[in-house]
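I'm stuck. Protein, please.
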Amino acid sequence: MRDHIANAWAWVMVMFLEPITCLAMAIYFEARGEPTVGQVAVAHVIMNRVESDDFPDTVCGVVTEGETYTAKPDLPIRHQCQFSFYCDGKSDKPTDEDALHWATSIAWGVYHKQIYDPTNGAVYYHADYVQPDWAETKRPVRQISRHIFYKEN
């Protein structure tokens, strides 16, 4: 019986907490220095991708999407990910506990559809100090602080 309960709890952790953790980590590393609305916007881009047929259908799938090594499919190729923090070669261990708690609160609210989408459905974004090639083929919808948000044309 104890094993059954432990397995059930593990399932609950994966099904309900893993998406929140992945979303919170993305908010923390991609938008920690942004105002709250900017952090919410980054979270919504991830959730909008989950809802799109063009991206993985889980939060963690979206956050970890990118090129991997053939011999090691769980190892991302540096700088070949959709979200740069995931494969930039830097530590993914949060160091600012307050910022992580705030990111987790935002993740919970966005994941449970309790916080509006300030991007109006955007599925792409980049910092305003870079100019990715793909941006020319997308429609900008809004700039929030240092991030520019886009939809498909």
